[in-house]
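Predict structure. Chain length: 571.
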Amino acid sequence: MIAGVCALTFLAGLGRPAVTDSDEAYYAEAAREMIERGDWLTPYYNDEIRFEKPVLYYWLAAAAYAAGGVSPGAARLPSALAGIGLALLACACARRWYDERTALLAGIITATSFGYVAMARHALPDLPLAFFVTLATWGAILGLRIEPSRAGDHPAADRWLVAAGAGAAGAFLVKGPVGLVLPAVVVVPLAAWTWLHGRHPRASRAAIVGALGAFAVLALPWYAAMAVEHGPAYVERFFIGENLERFATPRYNDPRPLWYYLPIVAGGLLPWTPFAALWAPALSRAWRARRAGAAELRLVWWAWAPLAFYTLSVGKQPRYVLPVLPPLAVLLAAAMRRAAAPGSERRGLLTGASVASGLLVVLVAERLYAVRPLLVEWSSPWVPSLAAVVLVLGVAIVAAAVVSHRDRSQRAGLRGLLPALVAAASVCLAVATYTVVLASPQRAPVERMAALVLESRDGGEPYCRYRVFTRNLVFYTGPPAAAPFSLEAVRDFLRRPDRVLCVLLETDAAELEGDGLPLDRLGAVSYLDTGSLTFEALLDPDPARYVQQVVLVSNRPSGPSSGGGPRGHPR
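Prediction complete.
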């Protein structure tokens, strides 16, 4: 069942929408250039060396390209597979520490939580990082025998410790030192806690050597090769700039408040967030009893430690805290199963949480209907129909919760139905959002603009893009683009004596023409940047503010002297 849910939330329509004009374009394009260059050591983006991140995501995406061709779906496949892996790890943890039904629910919660569904559909390294960190953490907990006391020793504990070393290597190759820090801040204190309560962490010498060997063999050769190839420049840029400065200074991100991640975590668990109210009784009982072996206390630490680490950082980003969601999913599953058990005293709390979850789904359906004016490429029946389906599921969740609370004879059956309805609503929203709402019925605007660029570059002329399609256009055109940082630089580019092209907003083109610069308009597309939609846009979906007109211009018409044919091929 978990595999089926994952197939819908993580894999269905993975190639839609087009590669967004966001960070995912860096990874999708750098992997494409890796294939094109045949250079599997140094990542490039737009023909420039990219030191910002380690190589593993580029390797994974490039391998997907090599197997199935260059496409947005192939670029995102590593993230989608990481989402499936996380759901299976959450299931394994819940099965080991609780029971089969809790394991099934934990896997489904992980597979349908908004944070994971959203990130599994972007070509970004953050979900693979969460998978490798979770694998390293879980493997170390099993391998060092620091589980809850009732679990006993795992029969394959030594092999899990070696898997932890491989997971740490994967995390180190995806994001660098943070891939080691996040498992360590969980595992080291848990080992100390276990020691203080009379149960010594232990592992065989062979397992320890195997874990260290797996890490060294998998993680270190690429870093060593990069240091040899690029010298101190790489070491300084990546380890100092991209890690230490990103964590401790506002160089890359503006400072954000200490409570910044609380709504991020709450949003990442949607539509399951209201059920977090069920945590309190179990956690309170475990704390009062000071049960060193309690699974709940371990799961809380597993979630809290990475959250605290990132809370202390200056450079905060929403997707950094993805590793906290698997232990929270297990906690939620266990709490929901207890509340639904016969004779539970938390019947009212479960009913309230279910009603709140259903109302959230209803609210999402209303907003889905309200944003129709922004979805200018879709005919009218599509979005209202999707909103109606989501609305029905939200109402069904509320109705099932109320009926099960009032009619005890039907309580068990309806309470078992509630998680299925919440999961169904999440699956419906995931598929609808990424195959319809954020996608285009035909070719996406960036693909149409790329085709215009390639058609108009009849002599292989230089081209630039300014303030729109700044990252993703090159993925669809192939040839590198200039990237001026100001309108004055665009003006200078268009004043070159040779023929050049530029992709820019209609408002910027009009300003250049108003300043006396003659432009030859070659085509235009309407564009909604779905990758940077804000909460404000959902509350006030005004097309005049968010739907942009993008134009392709040249400084002079194409002439017979241009010669040649178009270079590159739109994907």
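Summary: The first helix runs from residue 2 to 11.
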